[in-house]
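User: We ran a pulldown and think these components assemble together. Before we commit to crystallization trials, I'd like a predicted model of the whole complex to look at. Sequences follow.
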Amino acid sequence: MTDTTASRLQTATRLTINEDWLSVLIGPLVFGLALASLGNVDLLGWAATTKVWTDPSHALAPFAPSYGALSGLAALFATYLALLLVLSAAAAALKADVRRFALTFSVTFWLAYASWILGSYAHLAAVTPADFSKYGISWSLRLTNEGGYIIALLLGLIIANFFPRFAAWLNEAIRPELYIKIAIVILGGVIAVTAAGKLNLASTVFLRGIAAIIEAYLIYWAVIYFIARKYFGFSREWAAPLASGISICGVAAAIATGGAIRARPQVAVLVSSLVVVFAVIEVLILPFLAQTFLAHEPLVAASWIGLSVKTDGAAVAAGGITEALILTKNAAEGINYQPGWILGTTATIKVFIDLFIGIWAFILAHIWTTYINVAKPSSRAKLVEIYQRFPKFILGFILTFIIGLSLALSLGKAQAAQLTAAIGEANIFRVTFFILTFFSIGVLSNFRKLWEDGLGKLAAVYVVSLFGFVIWVGLAISWLFFHGIKPPLAG
Amino acid sequence: MADTDLRKEIQEQQAEPLLPIEKKLIVGSLLTGVVLLAVLVVVNLFLGS
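Assistant: Here's a predicted model for the assembly, 540 residues in total across the polymer chains.
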């Protein structure tokens, strides 16, 4: 992780307008513009969508048929310009160097999107015999078009590890937390419309989200803190952010805990960079394990990914890949599950875990300032810290969820099709923010730098906790609560 | 703080014994977590039946 990223993480909790609040503005903005099509005003139909291709000129197209006159490349350019405009305004609000952001974002966008297009190449993405026949191919890696996320991640990793000066130059636009939070806010509306079709199943998923909270905070945290303190000899200042980073949700939790126990900012920053690197490894491995072993228990797989992969971005993105892989495997066996449930379950589990970061940080702050590093009464933990450390993007998620659910439950059949199309437009941008997230996570993951920082000992705690404990307990609890619950069938 | 200082600090940390309040936090969290999970499992079975 570069110094500028480090300093950005350190100041993230101090700024009034931060990436959290920006996601609360931008996510509903995208969602609202997409919903305008309910009033027959299609404001986002020009957004570019990617199809599986053998001829690159057929890879891109505008989302809505009403914008059919637009070429695929023009649609992509329009998508780029719209994001450039909105995100440059966001960079200005963050008091970043806007010109530099615009330049580096442009490079980031085109590299990331090129990876996505490459991921839709038929030899990588085609899955079914019908696809093989349609595209006139005899073999494919069957990664689905979501394999583009993996390519974006790998490209980012190559840049980070082999072209570190280029990675440092890109830094202004490498904002995975901003991109994923906007994506999750948009996803709130998408999940709501999916959930409206099966409210019983949706409420079941929500109830089981509570189990995820208990597991992450009360079980994972306690065990990892104990391992770090007892067996690896870490001080309290290092062990607490490390336990939060590994057990709760990565970067945000490590920073919140670091602040809560009054640790030096460098501690949370170093732990955060470790979490990001491990999240990359998990994203590259766990979805494929889930496809291999849990394809017939799709929601167990979804919950397991949400509980095992740390950082919101990596977890939700891994949920997207897992969904594509599992739906594909089931489709090959003649079972066609409705899309959205696996990704929705992973995202819900993650949001439930995020909800309690503020409360957990307050509990730790109270214990540390009252019993461990006893502070003056004026410096002790205050209830307002719960609000201060609450991840505000969740407000945006709740907002789009409520709007989406209300619309889905109140509209007639004729307008339901329009709502589905509108959600599809919003989803195009959700996907684009996912792509940017994957690429950004890759660019932040400089394995060599991490090793040079002497984080081998921290990494050892992570390896022991993750592979010896977190993924197994996560699997057991996911199985306990989601075993036998299946997503609805498509159609 | 320079990277080299942090590296040195991580590798040369003196062990800090677990304080009683830390032990309480660890044991209390685990016990509460296991009990709440058991309650949820029962609720889950009840809802499923």
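Helices of chain B lie at 3-11, 20-48. That may be worth checking against your pulldown data before setting up trials.

User: Thanks, that helps.
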